[in-house]
Queue: 2 jobs
Job 1
Amino acid sequence: MSKKYNFSAGPAILPDSVIKASAEAVANWDGTGLSLLEVSHRGAKFVSVLEEAMALTKELLGLPDNYKVLFLTGGASSQFYMTAMNLLDKNGKACYVDTGTWSTKAIKEAKLFGPTEVIASSKEQNFQYVPKGYEVPKDATYLHLTSNNTISGTQMHELPITNTPIVCDMSSDIFSRPIDIERYGLIYAGAQKNMGPAGTTLVIVREDMLGNVDREITSMLDYNTHIKKDSSFNTPPVFPIFVSMLTMRWIKSQGGVAAMAKHNEEKAAIIYNEIDRNSLFKGVAAKEDRSLMNVTFVATKEGIEKDFLAACEAAGCVGLKGHRSVGGFRASIYNAMSIEGVNTLAQVMQDFEKANA
Ligand SMILES: *Cc1c(COP(=O)(O)O)cnc(C)c1O
């Protein structure tokens, strides 16, 4: 069977070359006669993978030396509490912008660790836009943002004006565009959207953010533990780290995150133009906040959803069913999605309109 165009939100599409090289390394890693899965995480060969993954993260995102790179476990969901546990205590104040399901979960966890204020929210409109123009209190310890809202299909295209360090959930748009690193105190991203398989979470943290809370932190949940041991305090998730490293090599070979951004803008324009042109579909998210990663849209005519998904499937386009909280359709077009893939989907939409409008 030929490879399908995978529009799934996550676990999500990875570059073909990365999948192939990963499969080879699982079978016989670089001709060592051993699988990547059965060698010591403390051996020189795996240590060099971890080092390369960290170095590529720094290079691709332009991180200064005072930012540390970690590969942890527990998913982005564990970062909802780990950030607050490490950064917030009763003397501080965490400010959150509530832009979707994921930020709502992060807020719930932060409240367990110290004063937490929701300073802006788009909940009243089912998170279909990104709030703007709010004030960040001067005494905030950090401001938590979600750069891309995977479920509702909105993305933050500009950061708010503030000197407060930003803590950001970049799970679904990490490495999709350049970032202004100086604005961030901490960034986290689960691998399975735009970087690798599920099982590791990238954390980037500025050193001065740590060590300021009035509590003891259990070793595994303390960022400093993992910084001191270069993400190998315990056995790291070797396979997800390896695949993520290969994806970063691929991003670099394509011209880095600036080239990714250009490619992603082109792809998003193709799909959004078709949605706006096509009488059978309409976009969900506010136009100025549309995500370049997750394109959400619904049918304008009753009863055509199943047929449209079947038409997509027949053309090799899969994973397009929308999240249950939004309905309709969602085309996730992460870094590894090709122009050919989005053109195929746009063509299906055109053909479907001709047959059903
Ligand atoms: C998927 C996702 C999460 C949750 O990630 P897990 O690794 O499953 O815990 C959190 N935030 C965003 C923005 C996501 O897209």
Note: The longest strand covers residues 184-190.
Job 2
Amino acid sequence: MDQALLLIHNELLGTDLSVYWNSERCYHCLLQVLVNVSGNGKPGKPSIAAVAVSTQHGSILQLNDTSEEKEVCRLEYKFGEFGNYSLLVKHVHNGVNEIACDVVVNENPVDSNLPVSIAFLVGVAVVVAVCFLRFLLSLDDFNNWISKAINSRETDRLINSELGSPSRAGQLGDDTRPEAWRPSAVPLRLRCVDTFRGIALILMVFVNYGGGKYWYFKHSMSWDKVRIPGVLQRLGVTYFVVAVLELLFAKPVPESCTLERRCFSLQDIISSWPQWLFILMLESIWLALTFFLPVPGCPTGYLGPGGIGDLGKYPNCTGGAAGYIDRLLLGDDHLYQHPSSNVLYHTKVAYDPEGILGTINSIVMAFLGVQAGKILLYYKDQTKDILIRFTAWCCFLGLISVAFTKISENEGFIPVNKNLWSISYVTTLSSFAFFILFILYPVVDVKGLWTGAPFFYPGMNSILVYVGHEVFHNYFPFQWRLQDNQSHKEHLIQNVVATAVWVLIAYILYKKKIFWKI
Ligand SMILES: *[C@@H]1O[C@H](CO)[C@@H](O)[C@H](O)[C@H]1NC(C)=O
Ligand SMILES: *[C@@H]1O[C@H](CO)[C@@H](O)[C@H](O)[C@H]1NC(C)=O
């Protein structure tokens, strides 16, 4: 999978070639030896070496004359899945004796992204079909017609229970409605928050199940390969710290906010100044350790992947200070041995993506989530105030990310790095989170344009779905024997079905009112 066949034809008689390869995605990396092709072929019968090349990203190929270690030619090429290619290395006699390296396609690659496009279109079709059905059912004429056609009582029951939108806290945001609309004894549960949690969780389940074995689903999301201990421990520590912080310092929402509906514009932040102070102190510790802690044998403030990255100058510096602290305090053996940087950068030392230093930033991230909750509490029912704050946070965090990263993947002061939980990763993700809440809150809770289905079902049972998907992932219907283990299509179908089954399970549990909380 994600491979193509490359036949290297050495037509330079008497010249041995060393072929080096690297992925375009590997930043500032040392080239790696791919194969040697001898030059002892005969005219018209060159020596050929066959190699497999990765098709995930563009490839950089460099061919050297083995005896002189002199570059013969260098090219960049994006090979396609299961393609069959030839690289012809030969003399061209156009006056000067030049050497040409040309890639020829023997057999066309398959379009490995086609299944993703089809899956997406099927998803869109399902959404459109459901919307259309709901629209039909909302038409009185159509209802009457159906009622006559089948037992009317049954239809009413169906429409009210299955398709009617379950009580929406929504409609309340509308300022003209009387306050008495909501039974105040019932604690408000915001649908948009459950929906958001559900979307994140379902994406995570899909990625965890393999994401169709596409590299972009694996690397672009927030969990690569989840180990229950690491992630749950980190979540535990993170929530513990934030919860203790809030228990120690949280003040009740002032009455002026809830009753008079007038809340001083920065009250949500100012009233939690001790928490903010603590968070800023924590973040200073992260910055200080990351950029000023001397790490033996490594440049101070190194944030890179080590291994063959940075032209192989710092092979044992993976993760910089964060990696060093973990190896020092926990020892190599207790760390995760296969970080995602391993594949691309050939890292040598153990590095734990759920390490100690990164926990600081996940606490900061969780606290930003608490801040979103406070906005919803302090400015309850004041849709405009809430949306303004979501926008402000989204822009503020986004600008911090821009400043840290200089909008580039690797060149900025602090690159977005999931394995490090770098602060720019936290601000970027949180900025997106505020943006999503900015969209979901008015659509789901205020206007009630969307119930949040089907995402709020898993969102309301997130612990159960999370633990369940880990525990049962080896069992049918979450996994079965594939006919062709090398096919993205089959993996994609399997992973989409497994994810959909969890949504279905969450839906059934919701209907049975079973919720698993800790
Ligand atoms: C790749 O193409 C070459 C040249 O057409 C052919 O000789 C070879 O058998 C092909 N290899 C495979 C695995 O299809
Ligand atoms: C990196 O670590 C390996 C094994 O621990 C060691 O053999 C090697 O010399 C180290 N390299 C550098 C540049 O320190």
Note: The pocket of 2-acetamido-2-deoxy-beta-D-glucopyranose (ligand 1) is lined by residues 5, 84, 106-107 (CB under 6 Å).
